[in-house]
Design brief:
- The protein has 294 residues and is mostly helical.
- The chain has one domain.
- It is built from 13 helices and no strands.
- Helix 4 runs antiparallel to helix 8.
């Protein structure tokens, strides 16, 4: 009965991470419209601030119960979350969107080995095989003709590494800390760090643009769903899944980003992209198959 219960919890956690990737996939559509109105660093600062306020109202009891260690862990997560988005955003200025999406999600390969270094727990062969399968799928899904490496690609690679570190730390911290409190603190920390970076990266900002109705609806989606709901699901889900499995599930963001772009932005779905989606789904299924106990 306990095994059945544990399996059920893992299935729910996996479904939660897949829902997260669907939310983030649609965020590509929303971000495309929002960054034309508000500079990237300020967009991130406003997005995380709105989410932090909502989380603090909803989960103030968890926040008040947080001890010194939980606060430190949450701030560490916030730092890496801020760095991930900053490197991704500014990497996008110097490279193509397709390469940016592909290189970012290379965390699917980095996470198992990074987790091995930190925890001394070797990832299973099935997880490693699924990770490589996912990378091939991501390449088919994201990459166009230009495979040269430029400055933006290097910035995006750092972004992927930051996301990998963030993911591994979530896995470690949620073993002993309340995932809800960690979420509130990390989002608040990310908001503070982004406000600190914004004047240096994007100069001054006219806050009157926040009253733009078309921008406001996008900000609400990014703060409520793409940040508040998504990171609650990620932090809670990773408590019950391995870092390697979580990375593969979260890489499905590229699949949903592609599908929503086809539906809402009228992008063309090619045979290569369909093959990439199929390989991504195969990687997820491979990672989710029960491992045989030795």
């Amino acid at each position: 009965m306990n095994n059945l219960s544990e399996r059920g919890i893992k299935i729910l956690a996996s479904l939660g991470l897949i829902l997260t990737t669907m939310i983030w996939g649609f965020a590509f559509v929303v971000m495309k419209n929002s960054v034309d109105i508000i500079p990237p660093a300020y967009l991130l600062a406003v997005r995380f601030s709105m989410s932090a306020l909502l989380l603090a109202v909803l989960f103030h009891k968890n926040l008040l119960r947080a001890d010194h260690r939980t606060i430190i862990c949450g701030v560490i997560l916030g730092v890496f979350l801020c760095l991930s988005y900053q490197f991704q955003t500014y990497g996008l200025k110097y490279t193509t969107a397709s390469k940016n999406a592909f290189i970012t999600t290379l965390y699917v390969i980095i996470v198992p080995f990074l987790y091995w270094i930190i925890s001394k727990k070797r990832p299973g062969g099935r997880n490693i095989a699924a990770a490589f399968l996912a990378v091939i799928g991501l390449a088919l899904l994201s990459l166009q003709g230009d495979l040269s490496i430029n400055y933006g690609d290097l910035l995006t690679l750092v972004c992927g590494l930051m996301f990998a570190v963030h993911m591994v730390f979530i896995d470690k911290f949620t073993e002993t800390q309340d995932p809800i409190a960690l979420t509130v603190i990390q989002i608040l920390a990310a908001a503070i760090f982004n406000w600190g970076c914004a004047p240096f990266l994007d100069g001054t900002f006219d806050f009157a643009v926040l009253l733009d109705k078309s921008l406001l609806s996008g900000l609400l989606y990014l703060s409520v769903f793409s940040t508040t709901v998504a990171y609650l699901l990620q932090n809670s889900g990773q408590k019950y899944l391995s870092a390697s499995t979580s990375a593969i599930l979260l890489s499905m963001e590229s699949v949903f980003g592609t599908l929503f772009s086809v539906i809402f932005l009228k992008d063309v779905l090619t045979g290569k992209m369909i093959a990439g989606c199929a390989l991504m789904f195969a990687a997820v299924l491979l990672s989710e198959l029960p491992q045989k106990k030795q």
